[in-house]
Amino acid sequence: MGHESIRTRFCDMFGVDHPIVQGGMQWVGRAELVAAVAEAGALGFLTALTQPTPEDLVREITRCRELTDRPFGVNLTILPSINPPPYAEYRDAIIDSGIRVVETAGFNPAEHLPAFQRAGVKVLHKCTSVRHALKAEALGVDAVSIDGFECAGHPGEDDIPGLVLIPAAADRLQIPIVASGGFADGRGLVAALALGADGINMGTRFLATAEAPVHENVKSRLVEADERQTELIFRSLRNTARVARNIVSEEVVATLAAGGDFESVRELVAGARGRKVFEVGDLDLGIWTAGMVQGLIQDVPTVAQLVGRIVDEAASLLRGRLAEVIR
Prior knowledge:
Blueprint: H1 9-14, E1 20-22, H2 31-39, E2 43-47, H3 54-67, E3 73-78, H4 87-96, E4 101-106, H5 113-118, E5 122-127, H6 130-139, E6 143-147, H7 162-172, E7 177-180, H8 186-195, E8 199-202, H9 204-207, H10 216-224, E9 230-233, E10 241-244, H11 247-257, H12 262-265, H13 271-280, H14 303-319, H15 321-324
Parallel strand pairs: 1-2, 1-8, 2-3, 3-4, 4-5, 5-6, 6-7, 7-8
Antiparallel strand pairs: 9-10
Helix pairs in contact: 2-3, 3-4, 8-14
Protein backbone atom coordinates (compact mmCIF):
# COMPACT_ATOMS: atom_id res chain seq x y z
CA MET A 1 0.00 0.00 0.00
CA GLY A 2 1.42 3.40 -0.97
CA HIS A 3 1.70 6.18 1.55
CA GLU A 4 1.00 9.87 1.22
CA SER A 5 3.88 12.17 0.40
CA ILE A 6 4.82 15.23 2.40
CA ARG A 7 7.86 16.90 0.87
CA THR A 8 9.75 19.88 2.20
CA ARG A 9 13.02 21.53 1.24
CA PHE A 10 14.64 19.27 3.84
CA CYS A 11 13.71 16.22 1.74
CA ASP A 12 15.20 17.81 -1.37
CA MET A 13 18.41 18.83 0.39
CA PHE A 14 19.05 15.43 1.99
CA GLY A 15 17.62 13.17 -0.71
CA VAL A 16 14.89 11.46 1.33
CA ASP A 17 11.18 10.87 0.76
CA HIS A 18 9.83 12.04 4.12
CA PRO A 19 10.85 14.94 6.41
CA ILE A 20 11.49 12.58 9.33
CA VAL A 21 14.86 12.05 11.02
CA GLN A 22 16.12 9.37 13.39
CA GLY A 23 18.89 11.30 15.10
CA GLY A 24 22.01 9.86 16.67
CA MET A 25 21.23 7.74 19.75
CA GLN A 26 24.17 6.41 21.77
CA TRP A 27 24.22 2.56 21.88
CA VAL A 28 21.10 2.49 19.66
CA GLY A 29 22.08 4.05 16.30
CA ARG A 30 23.26 0.81 14.72
CA ALA A 31 22.94 -0.63 11.23
CA GLU A 32 19.69 -2.58 11.70
CA LEU A 33 17.73 0.46 12.91
CA VAL A 34 19.33 2.98 10.55
CA ALA A 35 18.84 0.77 7.49
CA ALA A 36 15.16 0.28 8.40
CA VAL A 37 14.73 4.06 8.66
CA ALA A 38 16.44 4.55 5.29
CA GLU A 39 14.27 1.86 3.67
CA ALA A 40 11.17 3.65 5.04
CA GLY A 41 12.22 6.83 3.18
CA ALA A 42 13.35 8.79 6.24
CA LEU A 43 16.86 9.88 7.29
CA GLY A 44 18.64 7.71 9.86
CA PHE A 45 21.98 8.23 11.58
CA LEU A 46 24.47 5.69 12.82
CA THR A 47 26.07 6.96 16.03
CA ALA A 48 29.84 7.16 15.54
CA LEU A 49 30.78 6.91 19.22
CA THR A 50 28.63 3.80 19.75
CA GLN A 51 31.46 2.12 17.81
CA PRO A 52 34.59 1.61 19.95
CA THR A 53 37.03 2.72 17.22
CA PRO A 54 36.95 4.52 13.85
CA GLU A 55 37.69 1.14 12.21
CA ASP A 56 34.60 -0.34 13.86
CA LEU A 57 32.59 2.59 12.51
CA VAL A 58 33.78 1.84 8.97
CA ARG A 59 32.64 -1.77 9.44
CA GLU A 60 29.24 -0.62 10.73
CA ILE A 61 28.80 1.69 7.72
CA THR A 62 29.56 -1.29 5.46
CA ARG A 63 27.05 -3.42 7.39
CA CYS A 64 24.40 -0.72 6.97
CA ARG A 65 25.09 -0.51 3.21
CA GLU A 66 24.56 -4.26 2.96
CA LEU A 67 21.06 -3.71 4.39
CA THR A 68 20.01 -0.67 2.33
CA ASP A 69 21.02 1.29 -0.76
CA ARG A 70 19.08 4.36 0.41
CA PRO A 71 20.83 7.43 1.92
CA PHE A 72 21.79 7.42 5.60
CA GLY A 73 24.16 9.46 7.73
CA VAL A 74 26.46 9.30 10.74
CA ASN A 75 26.14 11.28 13.99
CA LEU A 76 29.32 12.71 15.51
CA THR A 77 28.67 14.06 19.00
CA ILE A 78 31.45 16.22 20.40
CA LEU A 79 31.43 16.31 24.19
CA PRO A 80 33.85 17.67 26.78
CA SER A 81 35.77 14.84 28.42
CA ILE A 82 39.06 14.23 30.19
CA ASN A 83 40.13 11.65 27.60
CA PRO A 84 38.31 12.68 24.41
CA PRO A 85 37.82 10.08 21.68
CA PRO A 86 39.79 10.66 18.45
CA TYR A 87 37.14 12.88 16.84
CA ALA A 88 39.28 13.73 13.80
CA GLU A 89 39.83 10.02 13.09
CA TYR A 90 36.10 9.32 13.34
CA ARG A 91 35.48 12.31 11.05
CA ASP A 92 37.97 11.05 8.47
CA ALA A 93 36.48 7.55 8.65
CA ILE A 94 33.06 9.05 7.85
CA ILE A 95 34.44 11.01 4.89
CA ASP A 96 36.58 8.14 3.56
CA SER A 97 33.54 5.83 3.69
CA GLY A 98 31.70 8.15 1.29
CA ILE A 99 28.98 9.15 3.76
CA ARG A 100 27.20 12.24 2.41
CA VAL A 101 25.31 13.40 5.51
CA VAL A 102 26.54 14.02 9.05
CA GLU A 103 24.68 15.06 12.17
CA THR A 104 26.91 17.01 14.54
CA ALA A 105 25.87 17.60 18.15
CA GLY A 106 27.29 18.72 21.45
CA PHE A 107 30.08 21.26 21.20
CA ASN A 108 30.72 23.68 18.34
CA PRO A 109 31.51 21.65 15.17
CA ALA A 110 33.70 24.43 13.66
CA GLU A 111 36.96 22.49 13.55
CA HIS A 112 35.34 19.63 11.63
CA LEU A 113 33.27 21.65 9.15
CA PRO A 114 36.02 22.51 6.60
CA ALA A 115 36.86 18.83 6.09
CA PHE A 116 33.18 17.89 5.70
CA GLN A 117 32.55 20.80 3.33
CA ARG A 118 35.59 19.95 1.16
CA ALA A 119 34.27 16.40 0.86
CA GLY A 120 30.78 17.59 -0.11
CA VAL A 121 29.23 16.20 3.09
CA LYS A 122 26.01 17.91 4.18
CA VAL A 123 25.96 18.81 7.90
CA LEU A 124 22.86 18.87 10.09
CA HIS A 125 23.84 20.44 13.44
CA LYS A 126 21.78 19.75 16.55
CA CYS A 127 21.40 22.58 19.07
CA THR A 128 19.15 23.70 21.91
CA SER A 129 18.93 27.48 21.44
CA VAL A 130 18.34 30.07 18.74
CA ARG A 131 21.72 31.71 19.44
CA HIS A 132 23.59 28.44 18.87
CA ALA A 133 21.55 27.78 15.73
CA LEU A 134 22.48 31.21 14.34
CA LYS A 135 26.15 30.56 15.12
CA ALA A 136 25.95 27.20 13.32
CA GLU A 137 24.29 28.85 10.31
CA ALA A 138 27.07 31.46 10.21
CA LEU A 139 29.67 28.65 10.31
CA GLY A 140 28.06 27.17 7.19
CA VAL A 141 26.10 24.11 8.34
CA ASP A 142 23.40 23.05 5.86
CA ALA A 143 20.53 22.66 8.34
CA VAL A 144 19.93 22.65 12.08
CA SER A 145 17.97 20.40 14.38
CA ILE A 146 16.48 22.39 17.28
CA ASP A 147 15.86 20.50 20.53
CA GLY A 148 13.09 21.76 22.79
CA PHE A 149 13.05 21.27 26.57
CA GLU A 150 10.80 18.19 26.18
CA CYS A 151 13.58 16.21 24.50
CA ALA A 152 15.46 13.18 25.74
CA GLY A 153 19.12 13.74 26.49
CA HIS A 154 20.55 17.23 26.84
CA PRO A 155 17.98 20.06 26.50
CA GLY A 156 20.44 22.84 27.39
CA GLU A 157 19.90 25.19 30.32
CA ASP A 158 17.28 27.61 28.92
CA ASP A 159 14.20 25.39 29.46
CA ILE A 160 12.43 26.67 26.32
CA PRO A 161 9.82 24.19 25.01
CA GLY A 162 9.45 23.50 21.31
CA LEU A 163 6.22 25.47 21.00
CA VAL A 164 8.26 28.65 21.52
CA LEU A 165 11.75 27.56 20.47
CA ILE A 166 10.88 26.30 16.98
CA PRO A 167 9.03 29.39 15.70
CA ALA A 168 11.63 31.62 17.41
CA ALA A 169 14.31 29.83 15.38
CA ALA A 170 12.23 29.88 12.20
CA ASP A 171 11.92 33.67 12.48
CA ARG A 172 15.69 34.12 12.49
CA LEU A 173 17.19 31.34 10.34
CA GLN A 174 17.38 30.95 6.57
CA ILE A 175 18.55 27.31 6.48
CA PRO A 176 16.16 24.35 6.98
CA ILE A 177 15.12 23.54 10.55
CA VAL A 178 14.31 20.11 11.94
CA ALA A 179 12.12 20.24 15.05
CA SER A 180 13.26 17.91 17.80
CA GLY A 181 11.88 16.93 21.20
CA GLY A 182 8.37 15.61 21.82
CA PHE A 183 7.55 14.18 18.37
CA ALA A 184 5.88 10.81 17.89
CA ASP A 185 3.10 11.02 15.31
CA GLY A 186 1.46 12.87 12.41
CA ARG A 187 0.02 15.52 14.71
CA GLY A 188 3.55 16.43 15.73
CA LEU A 189 4.74 16.61 12.13
CA VAL A 190 1.89 18.96 11.17
CA ALA A 191 2.53 21.09 14.25
CA ALA A 192 6.24 21.34 13.43
CA LEU A 193 5.49 22.41 9.86
CA ALA A 194 3.00 24.99 11.15
CA LEU A 195 5.66 26.37 13.53
CA GLY A 196 8.06 26.90 10.63
CA ALA A 197 10.17 23.75 10.71
CA ASP A 198 10.99 21.67 7.64
CA GLY A 199 10.82 18.28 9.35
CA ILE A 200 10.93 16.42 12.66
CA ASN A 201 13.58 14.46 14.53
CA MET A 202 12.58 11.55 16.77
CA GLY A 203 14.72 9.52 19.17
CA THR A 204 12.54 8.01 21.90
CA ARG A 205 9.79 7.08 19.39
CA PHE A 206 12.32 5.16 17.25
CA LEU A 207 13.58 3.41 20.39
CA ALA A 208 10.15 1.78 20.66
CA THR A 209 10.26 0.07 17.24
CA ALA A 210 10.74 -3.56 16.29
CA GLU A 211 14.16 -2.89 14.74
CA ALA A 212 15.67 -0.85 17.59
CA PRO A 213 18.58 -2.96 18.93
CA VAL A 214 17.56 -2.74 22.59
CA HIS A 215 15.95 -5.18 25.03
CA GLU A 216 12.18 -5.66 24.81
CA ASN A 217 11.81 -4.51 28.44
CA VAL A 218 12.97 -1.04 27.40
CA LYS A 219 10.36 -0.88 24.64
CA SER A 220 7.62 -2.12 26.99
CA ARG A 221 8.54 0.53 29.56
CA LEU A 222 8.23 3.28 26.92
CA VAL A 223 4.72 2.03 26.09
CA GLU A 224 3.73 1.84 29.79
CA ALA A 225 5.31 5.10 30.99
CA ASP A 226 3.48 8.41 30.90
CA GLU A 227 4.83 11.87 30.15
CA ARG A 228 5.70 12.54 33.80
CA GLN A 229 8.08 9.63 34.24
CA THR A 230 11.32 11.25 33.20
CA GLU A 231 13.91 12.82 35.48
CA LEU A 232 16.13 15.85 34.94
CA ILE A 233 19.62 15.07 36.24
CA PHE A 234 22.74 17.26 36.52
CA ARG A 235 20.69 20.47 36.85
CA SER A 236 22.99 21.81 39.57
CA LEU A 237 26.02 21.03 37.39
CA ARG A 238 24.49 23.00 34.48
CA ASN A 239 24.71 19.91 32.29
CA THR A 240 21.03 18.95 32.45
CA ALA A 241 19.96 15.64 30.93
CA ARG A 242 16.46 14.17 30.63
CA VAL A 243 16.45 10.44 31.36
CA ALA A 244 13.97 7.71 32.27
CA ARG A 245 12.85 7.81 35.90
CA ASN A 246 14.22 4.81 37.77
CA ILE A 247 15.96 4.01 41.07
CA VAL A 248 19.29 5.28 39.77
CA SER A 249 18.10 8.59 38.31
CA GLU A 250 16.11 9.33 41.48
CA GLU A 251 19.24 8.69 43.58
CA VAL A 252 21.33 10.97 41.33
CA VAL A 253 18.79 13.80 41.69
CA ALA A 254 18.59 13.36 45.49
CA THR A 255 22.39 13.23 45.89
CA LEU A 256 22.97 16.39 43.86
CA ALA A 257 20.07 18.19 45.56
CA ALA A 258 21.74 17.45 48.91
CA GLY A 259 24.85 19.29 47.72
CA GLY A 260 26.74 16.43 46.11
CA ASP A 261 29.20 17.02 43.27
CA PHE A 262 29.80 14.99 40.12
CA GLU A 263 32.24 12.68 41.93
CA SER A 264 29.45 11.65 44.30
CA VAL A 265 27.35 10.31 41.41
CA ARG A 266 30.06 9.29 38.91
CA GLU A 267 29.58 5.57 39.61
CA LEU A 268 25.80 5.81 39.25
CA VAL A 269 25.88 7.54 35.86
CA ALA A 270 28.61 5.43 34.21
CA GLY A 271 27.84 4.94 30.52
CA ALA A 272 28.64 1.23 30.75
CA ARG A 273 25.77 0.78 33.22
CA GLY A 274 23.32 2.59 30.95
CA ARG A 275 24.43 0.49 28.01
CA LYS A 276 23.74 -2.64 30.08
CA VAL A 277 20.09 -1.57 30.51
CA PHE A 278 19.63 -1.77 26.75
CA GLU A 279 21.48 -5.08 26.50
CA VAL A 280 20.03 -7.12 29.39
CA GLY A 281 16.75 -5.30 30.04
CA ASP A 282 17.16 -4.56 33.77
CA LEU A 283 15.63 -1.07 33.78
CA ASP A 284 17.24 -0.10 37.12
CA LEU A 285 20.82 -1.01 36.24
CA GLY A 286 21.82 2.48 35.17
CA ILE A 287 20.84 5.78 33.58
CA TRP A 288 19.08 5.55 30.22
CA THR A 289 17.66 8.25 28.03
CA ALA A 290 13.95 8.82 27.36
CA GLY A 291 11.88 11.87 26.49
CA MET A 292 8.53 13.15 27.76
CA VAL A 293 7.13 11.90 24.45
CA GLN A 294 6.99 8.41 25.96
CA GLY A 295 3.51 9.49 27.13
CA LEU A 296 2.43 9.38 23.45
CA ILE A 297 3.93 5.94 22.70
CA GLN A 298 1.29 3.20 22.77
CA ASP A 299 2.85 0.42 20.67
CA VAL A 300 6.04 -1.05 19.18
CA PRO A 301 5.57 -0.98 15.38
CA THR A 302 8.13 -1.68 12.69
CA VAL A 303 9.97 1.41 11.48
CA ALA A 304 8.15 1.18 8.12
CA GLN A 305 4.76 1.08 9.88
CA LEU A 306 5.71 4.04 12.08
CA VAL A 307 6.98 6.29 9.28
CA GLY A 308 4.06 5.41 6.98
CA ARG A 309 1.56 6.07 9.74
CA ILE A 310 3.06 9.46 10.60
CA VAL A 311 3.00 10.65 6.99
CA ASP A 312 -0.54 9.37 6.37
CA GLU A 313 -1.86 10.87 9.61
CA ALA A 314 -0.21 14.23 8.82
CA ALA A 315 -1.68 14.30 5.30
CA SER A 316 -5.15 13.37 6.54
CA LEU A 317 -4.99 16.13 9.19
CA LEU A 318 -3.95 18.70 6.59
CA ARG A 319 -6.69 17.64 4.18
CA GLY A 320 -9.34 16.96 6.80
CA ARG A 321 -9.82 18.62 10.17
CA LEU A 322 -7.48 21.55 9.51
CA ALA A 323 -8.94 22.29 6.08
CA GLU A 324 -12.47 22.09 7.46
CA VAL A 325 -11.98 24.89 9.98
CA ILE A 326 -11.36 27.41 7.20
CA ARG A 327 -14.63 29.19 6.46
